[in-house]
What does this fold into?
Amino acid sequence: MRYTPLTHNNEFTRAYLRGKSYVHPYIVVYVVKNRARRTRVGLTATKKVGKAVVRNRARRVMRAALCEVLPQDVGPVDIVLVARGATPRLKSTQLAPVLRKLFKRAGLIE
It folds into this structure.
């Protein structure tokens, strides 16, 4: 994958406030254009998802599905993936079609 990660709280907050959200029972995707001229990705899992081991699994599943779905030439956008309660119980192959559908709705892929 190797996208630039979102690391600062203000970058995530900007995506939450100004970005467009696409919701599914497994995941929430926020997409907002940026001025950085590159694709930046952030993965989050709140404590509502579970304890640390469960949250880490949710992030691993989201990262693997993202690598499978998102092409390299998306453009200058910030993408934030937020795990929901069912995310850690999925495999990345189950989450990939959901991400593909949400990215098509967002206009990131055809």
